[in-house]
Write a structure and sequence with these properties.
Length: about 325
């Protein structure tokens, strides 16, 4: 419990620092969202309209400390301001609408990539010296290939040439959003190709990472002792070697889960997927500071939550953590 209390205190402090930086950085930059809008209109805006826009965006002339307290109060009530790109829609509404698409697509694809990649990494390491070593050059090549290249290649082969999968949108134009069979099947059908892209592009990293750690673990004394005691190969591989070798991979997986919220931006762009990565791109293109600020805050908190889950997993899987605490 002492270990968990220390980690929880650390993450609370880090979350406060992330929230504070998220408040300060936009205010350290020259100008504000209203100045950008006025500049786009070449200055032909009535001063009264400028004041109205400032009130709409929550921009005030109060001191920084008072603005910081107002910012914390708004965060406590879930208010992240209004988007410039989608004015007058609130940023929290935009994030709430795009986040489920990203979590559903990237989250499931990341989990699938981790499970399959870790399993293959264990098998390749356990049967090192066999024909499975021939998989390594291919995984090394895939590890170096960018996401968007894989996405474009799959779109050309399976979307354009073979026409097996749609190449854009999250669901078909012939269905209406509803929790029914036609809509769900359309969503799964449209998500297949983007999900395959993420799995292929990220699985090589899982295989190589797990394989390398597993090979090192197989040389440990407790693994040799387990084999000398005559335990079955399956028990030595999973209960002794893989259980200890998987610990570094859990940290990598936890970080991946945190960045799931950020979305696979390039994949969403290639497939015109309405996830949070696409929203972030629109925010950057339109200099929509409130939208970028809200998305960065959500990503930061998601990364911290994922790391906290990794620490909890360490406590369960590694007895040394409990003893040190």
């Amino acid at each position: 419990m002492r270990f968990l209390a220390r980690r929880l205190g650390f993450y609370l402090l880090t979350a406060w620092a992330a929230v504070t930086l998220n408040f300060l950085i936009p205010r350290l930059m020259p100008g504000d969202p209203v100045d950008l809008l006025v500049a786009r209109l070449k200055g032909n805006v009535d001063p009264a309209a400028i004041d109205a826009m400032k009130r709409a965006f929550g921009i005030s002339d109060a001191g920084v400390w008072q603005q910081y307290l107002d910012y914390l109060g708004n965060l406590f009530h879930g208010e992240l301001g209004r988007s410039i790109t989608f004015f007058p829609t609130e940023v929290s509404t935009i994030i709430a609408g795009s986040l489920p698409w990203t979590v559903g697509l990237v989250g499931v694809a990341t989990l699938l990539s981790y499970l399959v990649g870790t399993f293959l990494g264990v098998i390749v390491a356990w049967r090192r010296g066999s024909w499975l070593d021939g998989v390594l050059p291919a995984t090394t090549f895939m590890h170096a290939v960018p996401y968007f290249w894989v996405a474009l290649a799959l779109v050309f082969v399976f979307g354009v040439t073979l026409r097996w999968f749609p190449v854009s949108r999250a669901y078909g134009l012939d269905v209406m959003p509803a929790f029914d069979g036609p809509f769900v099947s359309s969503v799964l059908y449209h998500a297949a190709l983007p999900a395959i892209t993420i799995v292929i592009a990220s699985m090589a990293d899982r295989i190589l990472g797990m394989r390398n750690v597993m090979v090192t673990t197989l040389g440990e004394d407790y693994v040799v002792m387990a084999e000398a005691k005559g335990l079955t190969s399956r028990r030595v591989m999973w209960a002794y070697a893989a259980r200890n070798a998987i610990l570094p991979n859990i940290t990598s997986f936890a970080l991946s889960l945190g960045f799931v919220v950020g979305g696979s931006v390039l994949t969403e762009i290639v497939f015109s997927y309405p996830g949070i990565g696409s929203m972030l791109l629109k925010g950057v293109e339109n200099e929509d500071f409130p939208l970028m600020q809200g998305i960065f805050l959500v990503i930061s908190l998601a990364v911290l939550a994922a790391n906290l889950l990794a620490d909890l997993a360490y406590v369960v899987l590694d007895p040394r953590t409990r003893q040190e605490a």
